[in-house]
Amino acid sequence: MEEIKIIGAGLAGSEAALQLAKRGIKVKLYEMRPSKTTGAHVTGDCAEFVCSNSLGSADITNASGLLKHEMEILGGELIKIAKENSVPAGNALAIAREDFSKAVTERIQENPYIELIREEIREIPEGNVIIASGPLTSDLLSESIREFTGYDHLSFFDAIAPIVEVESIDFNKAFWASRYDKGEASYINCPLNKEEYERFYEILVNAPRIENHDIDKNSGFFESCLPVEVLASRGKDTLRFGPMKPVGLIDKRTGVENYAVVQLRQDNSAKTLFNLVGFQTNLKWGAQKELVHSIPGLENAEIVRYGVMHRNTFINSSEVLNPTFETRKRQGLFFAGQITGTEGYTESIAGGLLAGINMARRINGVEPVIYPQETMIGAISHYITDKAHLEHISKRDGSLRYLPPQPINSNWAIVAPIELSKQERKNKKLKTELLSKRAINVLTNFVKSI
Fold first, then answer.
1. Of 302, 283, 53, 4, whose CA–CA distance to 164 is shortest?
2. Residue 433 structural domain
3. 167 and 149, same structural domain?
4. Do both 300 and 410 map to the same domain?
5. FRET label pair with 434: which of 82, 125, 148, 281, CA 20 to 30 Å apart?
């Protein structure tokens, strides 16, 4: 049987390697650290946690907690090791960072089916391969991935706007409309009068920003990707002639022509998540929260993900991958982890688990499996590979440039909707309990069927 090559011994790559090994499949696991560093990692250990030591909530009625429980049902290895190396953290699963990474490294080094090779891989190898090199993929491998995926399907700088839950928007103030009533009324519009706009503007221009040296020395952004705070710095009315222009957007309930309008655009096929159009930002998260909550209609908005701008490498999974994490144009080549467009440690492990299981199925002559969208692991894989998320902008030559969906982590809004009464919809705790119970039942039965 051919050995599987896995590139990257981070969380996703380590999980995938252990999944294949326990199925009796030999793995060559490549890791360029410590001989070549990423600039963020500090050790050469496998599965190193870089920023935090938390895997998030352990409560199964929390989206991240449910994902961890699903991984336990599927036989996840790193979740077991995380629990063995946990530290007190209330209702969250936090780990002793160094102990965890050393334990994963030892488990891999001692496994007779895994060969850990300290070497940089500079191009996509032939054969059966899982690429789990993460958002800090080396330049040479990034170029090889770019050649494979196509120029427009690999991103190097995120320009991410905040995303909010539609249920938390106040529609006594917000209204549905498209500019000049063209086509379906598919945008949510939050109108601002002059006083509200001036307050919003003052918050924005005085808000603290996240320092990012990569951005500072690579400041040649496309005009369409400028942070909203940079646009605002060009003049008090710049936003009113840009992403907040009010022309053609009138609330038919009032007939008022507004001073400025913040538009929100659908971000997932279930219409439960909406992003703030043109609001890519590099503000600190607390400042973003204050800014978003200053917008009429968004005073109590649940922010699912904050905006960021940073150097990052991730593929446009909606064009490149099937929900199995296998590439559409090359059988036997899988991607896993944050390079697929997911965020978070738990999500990285889940991607490695899914890719490892499906690679094993591919090797054994069985079709890779697509997990149900009622489950959190299935919802994430569907979300990042769903072509409905593709956006496009026109180039100067008249052609279209397709943009990948923004990276996402586990959240309830991406899970398949559940039938609820009006009273149940209002009770958030009950709703998440029902969604969690359904996910566990669906996954348990699904595992028995495959």
1. 302
2. 4-157+311-449
3. no
4. no
5. 82
Per-residue pLDDT, 219: 39
**b/e code 308-332 from CB counts within 10 Å (16+ = b):** bbebbbbbbbbbbbebbbbbeeeeb
Tell me which residue of 305, 273, 272 sits closest to 289, measured CA to CA.
Answer: 305
Boundary residue ending a domain (305, 321, 355): 305
In the numeric block, the tokens 């007779």 are attached to: 112
Looking at the structure of the chain, the number of domains it has is: 2
Cβ 385 vs Cβ 48: under 8 Å? no
> Residue 122 carries which side chain, given as an amino acid letter?
R
Give residue 299's pLDDT: 97
Q: Which residue among 261, 286, 305 closes a domain? A: 305
Q: 183 and 102, same structural domain?
A: no
Q: What is the CATH number of the domain that holds 129?
A: 3.50.50.60
Same domain membership, residue 209 and residue 298: yes
Return the pLDDT at 54.
Answer: 82
10-residue averages of pLDDT along the chain (450 residues): 91 98 98 78 82 83 97 98 85 84 96 97 97 89 90 56 92 93 85 96 92 48 66 93 93 91 82 87 92 97 82 82 97 96 92 98 97 98 81 50 66 91 84 96 96
- The two three-digit tokens of residue 395, written as one number: 């180039």
Classify the phi-psi angles of 271: left when phi > 0, otherwise alpha if psi is within -120 to 50, otherwise beta: left
Its pTM stands at 0.72
- Give, as one character, the DSSP assignment of residue 388: G
Query: If residue 5 lies in a helix (H) or strand (E), which one and from where to where?
Result: strand 4-7
Torsion of CA 325, 328, 332, 337, to 10 degrees: -30
| Distance (Å, whole) CA 353 – CA 12 | 7
Per-residue confidence (pLDDT) for residue 220, from 0 to 100: 37
Q: Say what the pLDDT of residue 116 is.
A: 97
Element (H, E) at 448: helix 428-449
Helix (H, G, I), strand (E, B) or coil at 19: helix
Same domain, 169 and 147: no
Among candidate residues 215, 225, 11, 168, the one with its CA nearest the CA of residue 104: 11
